[in-house]
Amino acid sequence: MGAEKDNMSRIPQELLENPEIAALADEAEKRIFGSGDLDELERARIWLLGRKGVVTILLSEVRGLPPEVRPQAGRLRNLLKKTVEGWLELRRSELEKAALHAGLEGEFHDLTLPGRYIPRGREHLVTRTIKEIEDIFVGLGYEIAEGPEVELEYYNFTALNTPEDHPSRSLTDTLYVAGPDGRVGDVLLRCHTSPVQVRVMESRRPPLFVISPGKAYRRDVPDASHSPMFHQVEGFAVDEDITFADLKGTLESFCRIMFGEDRRVRFRPHFFPFTEPSAEVDVSCIICGGEGCRLCKSTGWLEILGCGMIDPNVFGYVGYDPEEFSGFAFGMGVERIAMLKYRIPDIRMLFENDLRFMRQF
What we know:
Helix content is about 40%, strand content about 20%. The protein is of the alpha+beta class. Strands 1-5-6-10-9-8-7 form a seven-stranded mixed beta sheet, with helices on both faces. Strands 2-4-3 form a three-stranded antiparallel beta sheet. The longest helix has about 35 residues, at about 70-105. The chain is elongated.
């Protein structure tokens, strides 16, 4: 679809006052607006503005002109170049619109047909559970911190009061990273997010109320309840006069917000190297309500996390005075929380990325 040249010239009046420039502008106008398609327009552009184009050569000749005429000549030739560039852009827009209309005229569109279904993506259940946990603790005044997944043995074990002969330090339990010589040193894939606790306390002074979500790794054989890679949220609070009652109140609030106001919560004595006293936390079974079923193995309770008061020895590694500060810590597996809340029977379902499973949530 061509465009007829306007009866009124597009050439600026200032260019018409110079016969040589006016003649070139007239020829440029004819070639540009006489182009019937984009290929022809491109040939006109090259003839005018290419490396050896007539306008390009005209501009390069300015430096050889006498000094007294150089400013006026340079201004006119630059005006010619800008005029030509504007014409090219205008004609290109006209030709593109013409090509679009020509294409649409040859097509048939049945507006009564239903639109194509584009399936929407879903937020992964693990991601959703982490966000739910974060929202609860941020609402309780906690902040979020992160740390490296490839960790030093010092932060993963030593600074958390784990003895040298503790079974968790062995190659059968922890994934160590071999050095260039193939030997195993003190670098490992963290087996919990608790090292973030030490890193935060090293760099800051109390009061501290922090949670640290992230991936953790252990040498486990995948089955219905275990995975060598999983997600954990560790949290801790350090300040003056923190007590076990504060820990209980915090975790009871979390459990009821996460699992429902009707959940009952109990604390059972346990042992962790970095907390003393320590406890495991159970909630009443979400299936039977505490009456006893297969999920809770007829106990009426489901274990969800471990916790305890931070051992004074841990404070010694970060330079805190245990006579001045006290604190508590807790850790939970995200996949376990998701499995209990959404009644998922096998942890492997969370990692298979089967859309039939993911669309249920």
